[in-house]
């Protein structure tokens, strides 16, 4: 049996969209390598429509960016499962559209795959509300942003238990949680 791992980069005050691209991601070699190692644990990606469309437009070109080759090779080659009420099959970028009820379709894929969820908006909330997320991995970056969407705004309560915390030279802290109810 696989699991669903939600992975998100956030600021100290839980913002997940940078005011400008230059203000995002404080990765040193150690934290970058750890993020890549975490990605290697997954068999496939699980995405909502908005994240799928954004990543599919960007990642196929990132293999040419120095330092991004390993990430890009892994992400581009992974199977992707996309939940959407508006897209229709077939999808590009090695992606399959999930059909029917979200809980049933994710549970079925999870039977044979560990799924990596990227993004923390509406889709992540839908998964959390249905109890489908087994682990929450937050890369907390040393920034405070005055505006923008916050992770899980309006969602809860959900009690989490800390599994691990790792601090990196860049100031990034990776926190791994599981739902406290098992």
TrEMBL record:
Residues 3-173 form the Bacterial bifunctional deaminase-reductase C-terminal domain. InterPro entries: DHFR-like_dom_sf, RibDG_C. Pfam families: RibD_C (PF01872). This is Dihydrofolate reductase family protein. It comes from Rugosimonospora acidiphila. The lineage of its organism: Bacteria, Bacillati, Actinomycetota, Actinomycetes, Micromonosporales.
């Amino acid at each position: 049996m696989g699991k669903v791992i939600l992975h998100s980069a956030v600021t100290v005050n839980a913002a997940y969209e940078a005011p400008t691209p230059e203000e995002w991601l404080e990765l040193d070699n150690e934290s970058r390598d750890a993020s890549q190692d975490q990605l290697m644990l997954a068999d496939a990606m699980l995405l909502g429509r908005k994240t799928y469309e954004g990543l599919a437009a960007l990642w196929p070109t990132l293999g040419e960016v120095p330092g991004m080759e390993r990430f890009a090779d892994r992400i581009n080659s992974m199977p992707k499962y996309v939940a959407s009420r508006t897209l229709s099959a077939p999808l590009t970028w090695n992606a399959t559209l999930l059909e029917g009820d979200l809980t049933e379709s994710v549970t079925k894929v999870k039977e044979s795959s560990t799924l990596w969820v990227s993004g923390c908006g509406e889709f992540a909330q839908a998964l959390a509300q249905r109890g489908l997320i087994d682990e929450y991995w937050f890369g907390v970056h040393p920034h405070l942003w005055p505006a923008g969407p916050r992770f899980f705004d309006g969602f809860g309560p959900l009690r989490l238990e800390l599994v691990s915390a790792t601090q990196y030279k860049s100031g990034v802290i990776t926190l791994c949680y599981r739902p406290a109810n098992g």
